[in-house]
Every structure is written in C-alpha cells, then in structure tokens.
Write a structure and sequence with these properties.
Elements: E1 5-9, E2 12-16, E3 28-29, H1 30-34, E4 42-45, E5 63-68, H2 75-85, E6 91-96, H3 103-109, E7 113-116, H4 122-130, H5 146-151
Parallel strand pairs: 3-4, 4-5, 5-6, 6-7
Antiparallel strand pairs: 1-2, 2-7
Length: 152
C-alpha cells in the first residue's frame, strides 16, 4: 500500500503517509484560531474556509485537518495546495467523505493523512495508489511532470 500506515486515533481509522506520530490534539475551528486561540497546534478547515488565513501561522501548526463534507466538494483540494505552496510541512489531513479513488489526487495536492468516514478497502486502495506512474501537470508533491522528463 505504498508507504502508508493505517492506524486508529481516538477510535477513528487513520491512513497516514508520514513517519512521525499522528497528532492527536483536537483541532480548533479556523474562526476560533484567528479570534485568539492562536496557541493551538491543530486547526480544522471547514468547506468554504479561507486557508490563506493560516499562512502567517504555519510554523506553529502540527496538523491542519480539512473537512470534506461531500466527495463532490473540491474546495479542500485548493486549501491543501495553498497551504503546501505557502510552506506548510506539518500533517495535512483530509477528513470526511473521502473516497478511495480520490486519494492519489489528494496526495498530489499535498494531503499526507486521511480520516475517511467509511472504511477503505485495502485492495482498492493499493490499486488506486498504483494506477498512475506519470503525471502531466506539476502539483504540490515532488513528482516531475512527464513532459519535463522528456523535454527538459
């Protein structure tokens, strides 16, 4: 299953692509964080929250959890990319209605931790993660686009 580790945190399944320990501090809302609870090290972004509000605080955050209320809601992808391109190196967790076929794309945007509502089938996850050997566009991950490999 690639370099993933499946664990439980607080009784919930967690799929991680990180070597450090899972962050188990409860995440505060973005509103609470920017309103003065800036000593928190974990923040939860809801759909529609502006991830750019966290950019001045990236060094102190160990976890940013991004809510996916529906698999059709793609705003979390943008939040992940904004945070990674802004220099965030901590755990970036997609939580909620996360489907197995979305994981490769979420990983490309910078997610390295997943807390899906429904259990993911291990065989389907392995197939999804191995599906694409090459990528055509640059993303928040370190994959070199195939056109750059071919044409410099």
């Amino acid at each position: 299953m690639d370099d993933a580790e499946q664990t439980d945190i607080g009784g919930e399944p967690l799929l991680r692509f990180r070597d450090d320990e899972p962050h188990d501090e409860p995440a505060v809302t973005l509103d609470s964080f920017v309103a003065g609870q800036t000593n928190a090290t974990a923040v939860r972004l809801e759909a529609g929250d502006d991830a750019r509000a966290l950019l001045p605080f990236l060094e102190q955050l160990a976890l940013v959890e991004v809510s996916f209320p529906s698999f059709r809601d793609g705003r979390g992808y943008s939040a992940a990319r904004i945070l990674r391109e802004g220099g965030y190196r901590g755990e970036l967790r997609a939580a909620g209605d996360v489907l197995v076929d979305q994981l490769p794309f979420m990983r490309r945007c910078g997610f390295d931790s997943f807390a899906p509502e429904a259990e993911l089938d291990a065989a389907a996850l392995t197939r999804a993660l191995a599906r694409y050997d090459h990528h055509y566009q640059p993303a928040a991950d370190a994959a070199v686009p195939v056109w750059r490999s071919r044409h410099g």
